[in-house]
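Subject: Sanity check before I submit

Could someone independently write out the structure tokens for this chain? I want to compare against mine line by line before I put it in a report. The sequence has 324 residues.
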Amino acid sequence: MPAVLPEAPAILEIRHAVRAWLARHEPAGGVVVALSGGADSLALTAAAVAEAPAVRALVVDHRLQDGSGDVAAVAASRALALGCAGADVVAVDVTGPGGLEAAARAARYAALDAGRSGRPVLLGHTLDDQAETVLLGLARGSGGRSIRGMAEYDAPWGRPLLGVRRATTRTACAELGLEPHEDPHNSDPGFTRVRLRTEVLPLLEDVLGGGVAPALARTAEQLREDGEVLDTLSRQALAAARDGDDLVVERLIYVPVAVRRRVLRLWLHDCGAKALTDRQLRAVDELVGRWRGQGGVAVGGGRPGVRLVASRRRGRLSAGFVND
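---
Independent answer below. Compare away.
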């Protein structure tokens, strides 16, 4: 049986956020909660058990620190005590490109996806995480898409707490009598996100007089709403411009640039592009909007020794892999 939760302000706020998310997205067959043992995921788990018909917890052990297996086991036992129908610990190997943070994230999401049994996975990302994500997107400078932040539901990933502050989850744990695990990585200044959290955002709050994190989160929400409209228009324009695997240039010339570049991004991804940069996308767009007889544009994709090249010939855009 689920534990009876106190009628205290912080846990009630989190329960309301989870309840609203469940009402909007109506997941069938219950949900899975990604539980690390930290305050955000622990409070989320407690609220999910109180609000959802069936909840399982998945605890990913990254095995990056001594005793990580014990931490994962404690988190799983807490999930069961809170009323989860099950709690599984999945150990992963953290390897791959992009540094430790990116490799750990990739391993974690792969394990969660493999273990979710077709159900949505609830993640404990808060409003503060959203603000940090927007700042990271601004630093990349890759346009509105990069500062739209995280979606509250990008199947199978659900984020009910994007309107809840991190301090609220910590207070909720105190209300529940739970002591969350403090991951040393969350205070390690070697990680960019940690420095944003501990140095950049507090400085912005001080200089700008407060309210920075909520403002960044609102910006992300507004850009996501606008982006969804542009994405719909882009899919329609892509369908109209297609001729087999190619695009007919004359059907794209008068499409607004903001939509056209989205069309080209979708098309290039369909062709196998990876890690597409803004510079590459603009160069491909010039094959349509500033055609001067220029040659093809190489974009990210393929495998070592092979690259994807977009080119224009006889009024059509085509993309194919060529040897270096």
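---
OP: Matches mine. For the report I'm noting this point. Residues 95 and 149 are 26 Å apart (CA to CA).
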